Amino acid sequence: MVAKKDEGEEKVTKKTSGEPELTDLPGIGPAVAAKLESAGVFDMMSLAVMSPAVLSDTAGVSTAVARKAIQAARTMLDLGFTDGVEFAEKRANIAYITTGSKNFDDLLGGKGIESRSITEAFGAYGSGKTQLGLTLAVNVQLPPEKGGVSGKCVFIDTEGTFRPARIKEIAEAFGANAEKVLKNILVARAFNSDHQILLLEKVTEMIKAGEPIKLLIIDSLTAHFRAEFAGRGQLADRQQKLNRYMHDLMRIAETHNLAVYVTNQVMANPAQMFGDPTTAIGGNIVGHASTYRIYLRRGKQGSRVAKLIDSPNLPDNECVFFVTTAGVVNEA
Q1: How far is CA 200 from CA 5, 95, 204, 240, 314, in A?
Q2: 3-class SS at 155?
Q3: Cα–Cα distance between 183 and 192 in angstroms, integer?
Q4: Residue in 193, 207, 206, 289 with CA at minimum distance from that of residue 248
Q5: Would the pTM of this model clear 0.70, i.e. be above it?
Q6: Which residues pair with 240 in a beta bridge?
Q7: Are 279 and 240 in contact (CB under 8 A)?
Q8: Prior bond to 117 cis, omega within 30?
Q9: Is 275:283 a contact under the CB 8 Å cutoff?
Q10: For residue 107, with 0-12 CB atoms within 10 Å meaning exposed, 13-18 middle and 19 or more buried, which class applies?
């Protein structure tokens, strides 16, 4: 029994440590690999899920060569069914990043936001969405015993909300070196939706270059999509583009075992007569693509309330937290 287990462990180690390159595939030489990389295909998984026709067009190879390369990639990655026990073993390397508030962590299962998933926070302005993002950007750098993963953070800023002074404030509250903390946050300002999509490819490039990125923050996810696709006539185009973007986000989270935190804008639903009319932008597409969906709002006496709207494994619940100079905390 023990020998079998050891063999299995060895097999898993082989798969994860000796990551195969695109050039290991039949018919994919350095020139073709360079073409694929310029088209945003950097890893084996991206190629394995392509169709032969798309790969043929992208790489400039024949359909037969493309089919052979895709088949080889799927064999190498072992893309098939696994039993529940094996799947549970694969999920054993999920990492967690504390929000800074024990109440908030408990709402999310006890440890904070998890890797290989998209956590979406939506709410009106001033509800704490950006403050939670800035706190997570600092917390991801903490060692595992303090609720972090000793990793770097990528912050895609679409609304001009990133403030280095605020990061320094939160870092100093932890007694950390503020300059060092800022150095580990890679910030990019996205000026339109196409730029925002392009920046995702840059994240994959940085990870491939060896950057220990463990958290990707997008603040906000829908601002550009909402501004550029105005009116009902463009709604279908917007949703299609947003859908593709959400799938790319999930692929990055799964492939590189990192956590994704996105903030989302809201609108008031004029048709709602009673109750809270606040509705998240992006509709069902964003709702279905997000693993964890949290609604943030202002509470009494300067508090904030987080309500878990959707989760694959946790019950709907809510908690109270505060935003102070130290970021997101349990009590003011």
Answers
A1: 38, 21, 7, 17, 29
A2: strand
A3: 25
A4: 289
A5: yes
A6: none
A7: no
A8: no
A9: no
A10: buried
Q: What gap in Å lies between CA 246 and CA 221, rounded to an integer?
A: 9
What does the block give as tokens for 322?
């505060």
Tell me which residue has tokens 């290989």. 116
Which secondary-structure segment (H or E) carries 255? helix 235-256
Q: C-alpha distances in angstroms, 195 versus 78, 151, 186, 224?
A: 34, 25, 16, 10
Cα dist from 149 to 197, 212, 215, 230, 299, whole Å: 26, 10, 9, 40, 31
pLDDT digits (tens, 9 = 90+) for 65-124: 999 999 988 888 877 788 899 888 888 899 999 999 999 999 999 999 999 999 999 999
C-alpha distances (whole Å) from 89 to each of 6, 148, 175, 199, 291 are 14, 21, 36, 32, 20
H or E stretch including 172?
helix 164-174
**Confidence bin at 3 (pLDDT 50/70/90):** very low
Distance between CA 105 and CA 113 in Å, rounded? 8
Burial of 35 (0-12, 13-18, 19+ CB in 10 A): middle
* Cα–Cα distance measured from residue 188 to residue 112, given in angstroms and rounded to the nearest whole number: 25
